[in-house]
């Protein structure tokens, strides 16, 4: 029976001490071999092409090319590679873009060495691992039922909605005042507020809006 080849790992992080620490702890793990270390994104791409690692541990915030762009480019040149993000950042503007770029797993640098090693082994088997806080954020984002964006007319008061409906019926300001038992100035006041909330410029546009959204009745 042929001996199983170790999982080849490339480290990409702009902090030398982080790379040294990772290389040291992963070097004690069975079946894992650190084949190279890169201090920036461009060097990471070059070493990935040279060493053809199975897994890349990728930092996110680096000078020059960040981890998001590095991940995107790396997977374009080596789509079979697995990128595991290892970062201190949990903010949405970094997390979701790198996952969309193709990152396979997402861990925080507070993870234990054993957790990082387990994630590497899981990635080699085609299994993703998300740090618990990351998984929680993603679940909260996607478990919410899909809801249409709030419509401008939902901001209208009951009286403003009545005015809008009467405009849609072609009523003049005087007719609206008579029907609602209010003064002309009050009608104009409601019109001004209503136009602002709907984002329209005049009563014609307001009438069109009402018909398009089924508010004319």
TrEMBL record:
Pfam families: GerE (PF00196), Response_reg (PF00072). GO terms for biological process: phosphorelay signal transduction system; regulation of DNA-templated transcription. Keywords: DNA-binding, Phosphoprotein, Transcription, Transcription regulation. The modification 4-aspartylphosphate is found at residue 59. SMART domains: HTH_LUXR (SM00421), REC (SM00448). Residues 8-124 form the Response regulatory domain. Residues 149-214 form the HTH luxR-type domain. GO terms for molecular function: DNA binding. It comes from the Bacteria. The keyword DNA-binding applies. This is Response regulator transcription factor. It comes from Cohnella nanjingensis. The lineage of its organism: Bacteria, Bacillati, Bacillota, Bacilli, Bacillales.
